[in-house]
Design goal:
about 350 residues; alpha+beta; nine-stranded antiparallel sheet; six-stranded mixed sheet; 15 strands; about 20% helix; globular
């Protein structure tokens, strides 16, 4: 069903993600189906920034962008939309805030920069997150149980609770990269055991993320302004476009190993792949960006005091994580991170 201008229609959302309305069945199976349809239909992307447009946090603006205009969005947008959809059909849903782990700094972000959801079904709590993307994206809700390995197609996820704070980690497979030219690409996640983010169960509202939403798309040092990206989950993997590089990952390709393939595109090919792979047709002109490159990755180009503060975030084929707003250094604020797949 098409959505009328100015009206947020749950059936239009279901049509956008290719999902049949669940009726009154509000169980784990329904939640899983909605999450999987969402992540395979709605790209995780920041292309508005690189088309000279704003990443709006208002729910109606998000609905217009994602549902009516067939676009995607970043974490704050896609999980805000998912929160609205789940609550609209009757799920007991709570918005939570996450602190993203920085691999180079070996610590979690000081600022709350990620939105995730808690859904309660028959007295059991689950974490649903459609906005982390890349090879870090969960494909099924995670039961809120401490210390339990929860295997999924992308990897093994694990939630651990310590004195009221929860931690999400993953155990990844080995990677096979046929093109030797990309063995040391800064788009590759090198860690087998990966900390992702921490969070508490304190309820949040979207207003808690207004500063982060503004800072990440305006700071010249933000990875979101220095890199254009678009990623989308598939039935067996994930595609990610970062700048001029298209990465395609197939999970568990063989022998507990992921296949990761790279392709360098020109501007015309980017336009074609956005349409063919991600089903996106942009209204403005895209200026593809991949930050400042160096042999040791993007962070090498940063001042030392910032390098330690940066939150690593990488696109999984094309996924990216939300990054913390950094402290003021040398007269400016930054929200920076590396992008890995």
């Amino acid at each position: 069903m098409a959505s009328k201008e100015g009206i947020m229609d749950i059936e239009a959302y279901f049509g956008r993600i290719g999902y049949k309305s669940p009726g009154n069945t509000l169980d784990l199976g329904t939640l899983t189906d909605i999450l999987q349809h969402h992540i395979r239909a709605i790209p995780f992307e920041n292309l508005n920034i690189h088309c000279g447009q704003y990443m709006d946090l208002g729910l109606e603006a998000i609905f217009d962008q994602i549902v009516r205009k067939n676009r995607g969005g970043w974490c704050l947008q896609v999980n805000h939309l998912l929160y609205w959809a789940l609550t609209t059909i009757g799920f007991d849903t709570t918005m939570l805030g996450g602190y993203v782990y920085s691999t180079p700094a070996h610590k979690y972000s000081k600022d709350m920069i990620h939105v995730l959801l808690q859904v309660t079904i028959d007295g059991r709590n689950y974490i649903a997150d459609a906005g982390f993307g890349r090879s870090y994206q969960m494909w099924q809700p995670l039961e809120l149980i401490s210390g339990k390995d929860q295997p999924q197609v992308p990897c093994i996820f694990r939630l651990t609770e310590e004195t009221g704070t929860w931690y999400l980690d993953q155990i990844r497979r080995e990677q096979y990269i046929p093109d030797q030219e990309f063995l040391n690409s800064d788009l590759l996640e090198k860690n087998k055991y990966r900390k992702i983010y921490s969070f508490t169960l304190k309820p949040r509202t979207i207003k808690d993320f207004e500063f982060v939403n503004e800072n990440l798309q305006t700071s010249p040092k933000s990875v979101f302004t220095s890199k254009s990206f678009c990623s989308l989950q598939t039935p067996d993997g994930v595609h990610c476009l970062v700048g001029f590089t298209l990465t395609s990952r197939k999970f568990n390709y063989k022998d507990n190993m992921d296949l990761v393939e790279f392709k360098t595109l020109n501007e015309e090919e980017i336009k074609e792949e956005l349409k063919n792979i991600f089903n996106i047709s942009l209204e403005g002109k895209l200026v593809p960006k991949h930050g400042k490159k160096s042999s040791t990755g993007d962070q090498a180009a940063l001042p030392e005091e910032l390098r330690d503060a940066v939150c690593q975030q990488r696109l999984v084929g094309s996924f990216i994580w939300l990054v913390p707003g950094l402290k003021k250094v040398a007269g400016w604020k930054a929200a920076n991170k590396a992008t890995t797949c």
